[in-house]
């Protein structure tokens, strides 16, 4: 297949009829060659189904195989379709309808499967296989050795796909319909991120053309996280998915200031949407003068009453603000047109209407009655002018809340304003009032418990015609506005009817570590069940030490004797000191954004979310808790990053909630 694609690519220019066709074809073929690139560490298949001559149940749309056919025979399942030189399938894509049985068939419901075979593959080498004769009632479930080996393998480098071992409860989410929005609540390591990424790949397979146009977007908490997951979709053959933080997604202006938490909280509050709406629409004023305009030959006049009627009518229709202004302009031009028709008995030409639309007196009427405004301009005016803010926020924000967001020393112009990250949500909200947003086909939102209501609204504006997958864990909420209940978030996201589905089994964190982290749950004030781990291996040590730096170096040295990654996590303000100590000991620790790989990464506690390391060393839990208002939630996140071993080092007493 690769050879064919490469040959086509090489001869593409000569077969295309014209330069434009040649370029389009070239791009398509280059994409095809890239999609087919070989990765010697990823085998072409990981499973096999021997089907009885029985109908396959379940949705039968969009696959390469005929709909509702009685299928029998043997199919290999892999990351992509592979066909032989005659176009006959050798390997079926894991997303094809027939492959569904590989993930969902059970002894109780064999779905036409006689034997399910899993292949164990290490570094591209076939090392084992495992058969389940479902027709004879054999089923391994989570006792599968190949599954156990996969989840217990030492972690190195970025996240990998889980296509070979997707579990039934995960598969149900992965294969939910495109039109279905869903919210997944799951404890750390239950595979939420994995599910979201595989769902994106599944939807792209099933609705390729539609989603290529409308787009699929993955939203994650920060760049370190996005870097960590970046390779998963390309490994599944999906190269065109946009991955972004929410700040980058909505960032129309650079961030050059930081707000105090109090101001951030007000700016992220959904009441700000109403304040902005009022501030915007209060700009409309009723025309006070008639319009007089000349076309060179005649002078035309539109009365004050007629102008007022235009503005009132358009306002009542509730358009976006900028569209409303243009609609009002067009209506005034048609009033002029009608006068011209009455006078000459025929319609003036299109050019006449265009010229009148741009005429200075008409624009002046609009500038008075329906002034043009940019999103930045609207927010700028509101934050620099306490009186304007007071009018727009009357009965919505308290005087104290208003004082928290108004600038003490405003910049002179919107262009020179020093915007904060929280201002971005206000500017985006303003943009949503002024202009319509294009809708994305599907949005996956990871670590969604930290989205503020205003951030949710920003996403809602981008998915008015699309669906979303919301992934999160209420216990890991660390933002001041963190969700405590998913129904609220879903309402702000404009998907109030989306179901909340739990994921219950943990694949990352060993049981002993989960038990320790679970002790924090009662103090986190969230109503969710404790995490349950599938893993019985792993090690946990908690040590009181005299000198944290020396102990950290010693612990990291011990950890380096094992294969797999090491994450040293501490409160943000302690990170520099720890990095320096590890460097001095010759360990060459790397930072999260380092371009070079290293075995030891130093991780500030606030950036640990969503990441995992084979061996995690957590330094001074009390300092992590003390560093921020939701410090206990942060500690819960930090403690649940370990795949094989967790070492906790402390000098101060452990937080009471952890001691239990
Ligand atoms: N079915 C599976 N088979 C093999 N590995 C799995 C499976 N599901 C999840 N994992 C692995 O478990 C680990 C945790 O998965 P993931 O990061 O998706 O969990 P999460 O729920 O998003 O965690 P967190 O809440 O901490 O962000 C990853 O290494 C992932 O590859």
TrEMBL record:
Domain of life: Bacteria
Designated name of the protein: AAA family ATPase
Residues annotated to bind ATP: 186-193
PROSITE patterns tied to this protein: UVRD_HELICASE_ATP_BIND
Coiled-coil regions listed: none
Residues annotated as domain UvrD-like helicase ATP-binding: 165-510
Keywords assigned by UniProt, alphabetized: ATP-binding, Helicase, Hydrolase, Nucleotide-binding
InterPro entries in UniProt: DNA_helicase_UvrD/REP, P-loop_NTPase, UvrD-like_ATP-bd
């Amino acid at each position: 297949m690769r050879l064919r694609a490469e040959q086509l690519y090489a001869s593409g220019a000569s077969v295309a009829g014209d330069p434009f066709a040649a370029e389009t074809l070239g791009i398509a073929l280059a994409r095809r060659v890239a999609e087919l690139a070989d990765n010697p560490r990823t085998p072409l298949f990981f499973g096999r189904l021997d089907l009885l001559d029985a109908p396959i149940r379940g949705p039968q749309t969009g696959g390469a195989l005929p709909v509702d056919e009685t299928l029998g025979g043997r199919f290999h399942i892999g990351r992509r379709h592979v066909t032989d030189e005659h176009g006959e399938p050798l390997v079926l894509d894991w997303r094809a309808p027939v492959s569904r049985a590989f993930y969902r068939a059970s002894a109780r419901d064999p779905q036409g499967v006689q034997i399910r075979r899993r292949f164990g593959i290490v570094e591209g080498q076939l090392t084992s296989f495992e058969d389940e004769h479902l027709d004879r009632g054999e089923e391994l479930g989570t006792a599968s050795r190949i599954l156990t080996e996969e989840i217990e393998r030492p972690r190195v480098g970025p996240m990998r796909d889980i296509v070979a071992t997707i579990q039934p409860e995960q598969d149900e989410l992965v294969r939910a319909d495109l039109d279905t929005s869903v919210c997944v609540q799951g404890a750390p390591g239950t595979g939420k991120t994995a599910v979201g990424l595989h769902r994106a790949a599944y939807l792209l397979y099933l609705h390729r053309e539609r989603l290529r146009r409308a787009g699929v977007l993955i939203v994650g908490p920060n760049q370190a996280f996005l870097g960590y997951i970046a390779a998963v979709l390309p490994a599944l053959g999906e190269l065109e998915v946009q991955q972004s933080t929410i700040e980058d997604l909505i960032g129309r202006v650079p961030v050059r200031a930081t707000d105090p938490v109090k101001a951030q909280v007000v700016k992220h509050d959904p009441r700000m949407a109403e304040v902005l709406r009022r501030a915007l629409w209060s700009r409309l004023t009723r025309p006070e003068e008639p319009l007089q305009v000349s076309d060179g030959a005649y002078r035309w006049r539109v009365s004050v009453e007629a102008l007022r009627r235009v503005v009132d009518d358009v306002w009542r229709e509730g358009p976006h603000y900028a569209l409303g202004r243009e609609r009002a302009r067009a209506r005034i031009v048609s009033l002029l047109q009608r006068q011209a028709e009455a006078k000459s008995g025929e319609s003036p030409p299109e050019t006449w209407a265009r010229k009148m639309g741009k005429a200075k007196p008409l624009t002046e009427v609009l500038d008075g009655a329906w002034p043009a405004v940019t999103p930045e301009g609207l927010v700028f005016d509101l934050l620099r002018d306490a009186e304007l803010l007071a009018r727009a926020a009357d009965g919505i924000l308290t005087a104290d809340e208003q004082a928290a967001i108004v600038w003490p020393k405003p910049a002179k112009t919107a262009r020179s304003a020093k915007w904060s990250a929280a201002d971005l949500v206000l500017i985006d909200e303003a943009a949503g009032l002024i202009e319509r947003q294009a809708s994305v086909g599907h949005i996956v939102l990871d670590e969604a418990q930290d989205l503020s209501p205003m951030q949710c609204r920003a996403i809602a504006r981008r998915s008015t015609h699309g669906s979303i997958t919301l992934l999160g864990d209420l216990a890991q909420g660390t933002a001041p506005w963190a969700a405590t209940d998913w129904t609220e978030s879903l309402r702000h996201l404009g998907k109030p009817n989306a179901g909340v589905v739990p994921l219950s089994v943990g694949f990352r964190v060993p049981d002993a570590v989960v038990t320790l982290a679970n002790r924090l749950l009662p103090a986190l004030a969230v109503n969710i069940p404790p995490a349950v781990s599938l893993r019985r291996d792993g090690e946990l040590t908690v040590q009181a030490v005299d000198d944290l730096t020396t102990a950290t170096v010693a612990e990291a040295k011990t950890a380096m004797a094992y294969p797999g990654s090491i994450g040293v996590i501490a409160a943000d303000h302690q990170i520099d000191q720890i990095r320096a100590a590890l460097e001095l000991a010759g360990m060459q620790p790397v930072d999260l954004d380092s371009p070079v790989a290293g075995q030891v990464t130093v991780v500030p506690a606030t950036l640990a979310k969503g990441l995992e390391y084979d061996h995690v060393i957590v330094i001074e839990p009390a300092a992590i808790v003390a560093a921020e208002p939701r410090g206990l939630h942060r500690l819960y996140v930090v403690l649940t990053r370990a795949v094989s071993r967790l070492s906790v080092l402390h000098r101060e007493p452990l937080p009471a909630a952890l001691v239990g």
